[in-house]
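EI: anyone free to look at a 209-residue chain?
SC: sure, send it
EI:
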Amino acid sequence: MRRIVALAVLLLTLSPANSQAAPIDALTALNNLEVKGRAAKTGYARSQFPHWSDPDRNGCDARNDTLKRDLTNITYKAGTRECKVIAGQLIDPFSGNLITFSASGNSIDIDHVVALSNAWQTGAAYFEKSKRTLLANDPLNLLAVDAKLNRKKGDGDAATWLPPNKAFRCEYVARQVAVKAKYGLWVTKAEKAMMEKILSTCVGQKLPT
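SC: here you go
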């Protein structure tokens, strides 16, 4: 019962109505997540998580919104009202390297910080499709990153894959915790152990908001 109450308080703090509240400590938030074994992947397909939609209804899909947020020196396709990104530069959080993006290349992916397959196996299989759509398009769960590293990550969780850029690991794990807390996903024992190990190196790391 204490865990349920604590998680309810955490989710309330993360809600839009409480966006001015002080950020929650990532390690505290992690300890409020349920710990369970990974469920079967049966029934999973990326189509269970429709993307790229326009959840904030600003006229741009979530993929281009992420590129606009994370890239610099951006060029937009003419006639798209500065929506469709066709060029720019990214300081890749996974590697720390500068990457040049062009619409004709495949140097940058939009990463789901909590991989969709992982989400499916830690609770999202029981969601309504509308909630899975929100998860797949939520800016909190999206990052522009090096495409090669994103594909190495695959559907890995913190226990099986972490960014090579060690300076980004605390922020990366905190973002995973924030997504799991927001959507009521659980963590596996091994996943939590690695998250605790990473967050112990950056005591006081806050959840992104």
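EI: The two ends are 26 Å apart (CA to CA).
SC: 👍
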